[in-house]
Design brief:
Two copies of one chain form a homodimer. Chain A folds into two domains: 184 residues, Aspartate Aminotransferase, domain 1; 253 residues, Aspartate Aminotransferase, domain 2 (3-Layer(aba) Sandwich), CATH 3.40.640. Helix content of chain A is 40%, strand content 15%. Chain A contains 15 helices and 15 strands. The interface between A and B is large, with 130 and 130 residues.
């Protein structure tokens, strides 16, 4: 099957989505509400999701590995979350006041992630990382934040740098060069180069922010020495280490990457899983840093680090869904993490084997329940940072993911990593492997095909 | 009753909240998740909310005029929203994909607010205004954004300027002076001074952002000539007018302030009401501007204006709650706006009369269903901008609001304006007026008392 035939087959199966997408282009810029959600020829429209399944408006049911931007570790609409939200719904969706559910969730997070000496709820991850940067600058009274090349911390203006290839160019129109002078970018997994860049900025260096696993940039795992090296540098030079655990928090373990890798960040951010499918972002960390934001302690507006908050912060729906999810994870942690990590390992090993046998040059990256397949080529022989992913054969990856969607009812958001939830089964992974084998055998993943 | 007695009486009635707040100070910086939600001696914790009522953990039931940061125009948990969310909950809370509910809501907004030629959903108002600024800079290829002194557009870094008195000082630690050089601040309702400031920045002026009614700064209504004058200046000089309708959208009329005042902004932002009590932000506007964000049309990352989006953008829960709310408003608009505006007028007139008779120098500001009482003094004789509010007797306003909470079971977030919903009644306003009269008669609102 040629790529053009694959596209036609997708269109055949998604006629209602095609019509809706055409309408959507007259309402939304590009027809979508998040750039990464567009894929060629057009994205399908979802109608319902339950457990591991996502169903589009043409009644195609997919096994979902996108799982709400990797948020839904218990699958779509797990009973515990549905029950909690059903009850909360009748008790109000938005108090705009303090509430005891947020206190319960906050205390539970403190217990499971002892680094969260203090925390504040916001409504999105973009907000949480923005506040973390603000806190680091307030604490250090310095300005420069170092981030990772390809690192993704949401759409906030400060950290919208070196996200997409070519990484040294501005991330699009409307950003002001003068606002970008206080961000430095580090090559992931290259400690020597990173330390050199940090040292060159040391006089004005406030902190380093990084995802322990590069998520949006392509599911790239860290050399542990790299993160430890950055942590050591931060400690030695009295700059703040901010760990962005929005993806890895409650994913790599109940204590996130901090627990798994034994890291001690000054600040860290949470989101996704901790909201149980509802909007959330959290900035957490040392009390001595977080207390800079305390409006009771620091009465003068100028002296305080003013972080949000917002209309929806600690709204009872997000709190109830998050609390139900984290309570469930806490009670069933051994079983759940064992299961999803085993399925992840099985997926990575199985995929690697299939491609190797077919002599298609692939590297399957990931850890625990996260994984992504990279198609290598003459330009890149292995994946250890975002530049490697940018150089890999993304056309082939798109074709692979579109093939899974169209021919095998398996949904990865094209180009993005997959996340296994507690409701995925061994049979699902077997199906994924079998589907991959069939796609490989069909010849569709040979790079000689039209693209 | 002295102010200290009032505080003691509040503490008597809110013993459980007192205990929870003490615990909360060990979890959250300042014990709260949004600075404005703290009030002295400590904020109560909410347990449930239904219709016009908010109930705290000590079973005190309040008539609520805070109404979820003024979001809940149909009251807490209206049946139409509860039904829509109950159904959606079982169909999934977070697809992470395109969905037809967002398309329906988007098309409905386009119909009711024709200026929304194109739009994009985000998850908070702070995000929406941040994206509006980015779009204005991209469109104009200029950098300076003018905002109003006291204007509040959320916690995003760019617009965190001249929000709090003293307005010419930095809004707290952790903000970088160099990032602030491209914002100019204008005195509300002073057209001559504002035009002078705009003219001085004209070479690099991208746009003007303003709330039609200053909300967080104190419910300050515009001289219509002021907004029209800014609009005329923007049109004449080819700079963008951004109307922040997060509070006024679907509040002042079904078409917001744009419709009521006949304004033609290039961009505008929505939030609050349009989310039906669930997290939302929207940036809307002219197609020629919004299309700069179109990733299908503009393939090159650097050429595009990259706006969000985010994990939760157009999530089906927010979309379902918003759609139910706006559909209900659309079907019942004559009745609802007539009712809430009449109640607002009755409240403003009644409050002004009571204070006048008591010879307490007060100005009740607001329009439609929004209102706030300002206590004047020797420093300020009338309220027309944020500096006037900052100079007014805020201690007395706090005492008035705490008195309503403690002695009359009426909740305004202390210092903040109130919003009337469709479930408030004539009897509620009568109760508010009667309670105010009793507070006045008690002598608690005489500025000679201890504070």
């Amino acid at each position: 099957m040629l790529n053009s035939e694959l596209g036609a087959s997708y269109e055949d199966k998604t006629q209602t989505s095609k019509r809706l997408f055409h309408k959507a282009t007259k309402v939304f810029a590009g027809g979508i509400n998040h750039n990464i959600r567009f894929f060629k020829p057009y994205p399908f429209f979802s109608k319902w999701a339950k457990g591991k399944n996502l169903c589009d408006v043409d009644d195609n049911e997919y096994t979902d590995y996108w799982m709400g931007h990797w948020s839904l570790i218990l699958g779509h609409s797990p009973r515990t979350v549905v029950n909690a939200l059903s009850q909360q719904l009748r008790n109000g969706t938005l108090y705009g006041t303090a509430n005891h559910i947020s206190l319960e969730l906050g205390e539970l997070i403190q217990k499971l992630m002892p680094g969260a000496e203090n925390l504040r709820f916001s409504s999105t991850g973009s907000e949480a990382t923005m506040y973390a940067v603000r806190l680091a600058r307030a604490k250090s009274n310095k300005r420069v934040i170092a981030k990772i090349i390809g690192g993704w911390h949401g759409f906030n203006t400060t950290l919208m740098q070196s996200v997409n290839y070519p990484f040294n160019k501005q991330e699009g129109a409307g950003l002001v060069a003068e606002e970008e002078q206080f961000v430095e970018s580090l090559p992931f997994n290259d400690l020597d180069s990173s330390i050199k860049i940090l040292e060159s900025a040391i006089d004005d260096l406030a902190g380093i922010i990084l995802e322990p696993i590069l998520g949006g940039a392509g599911c790239i795992t860290p050399d542990l020495g790299y993160i430890k090296g950055l942590q050591e540098f931060a400690q030695k030079n009295d700059i703040l280490l901010i760990l962005d655990e929005i993806v890895t928090g409650f994913r790599l373990s109940i204590g996130g990457a901090s627990q798994k890798y034994n890291l001690k960040p000054d600040l860290f951010t949470l989101g996704k899983i901790v909201g149980g499918g509802m909007p959330i972002g959290i900035v957490c960390g040392k009390k001595e840093v977080m207390s800079l934001a305390d409006p009771v302690l620091i009465k003068e507006n100028q002296a305080r680090c003013n972080i949000g908050g917002g209309t929806y912060s600690c709204n009872p729906m997000s709190m109830a869904a998050g609390l139900a999810t984290i309570n469930y994870l806490n009670k069933n942690m051994d079983e759940i993490y064992q299961k999803i990590n085993d399925l992840g390992a099985k997926a990575r090993a199985g995929l690697a084997k299939i491609f190797k046998e077919a002599k298609i040059d692939v590297q399957v990256t990931g850890e625990g329940s996260l994984f992504l397949t990279h198609f290598l080529n003459n330009k890149v022989r292995s994946i250890s940072n975002a530049a490697d992913v940018a150089m890999s054969d993304l056309g082939l990856l798109h074709r692979y993911h579109l093939g899974l969607i169209t021919l095998h009812q398996i949904f990865f958001l094209p180009l993005k990593m997959g996340a296994i939830s507690s409701v995925h089964t061994e049979g699902d992974i077997t199906h994924l492997l079998e589907a991959t084998r069939l796609l490989v055998n069909s010849g569709i993943l040979s790079s000689e095909k039209d693209s």
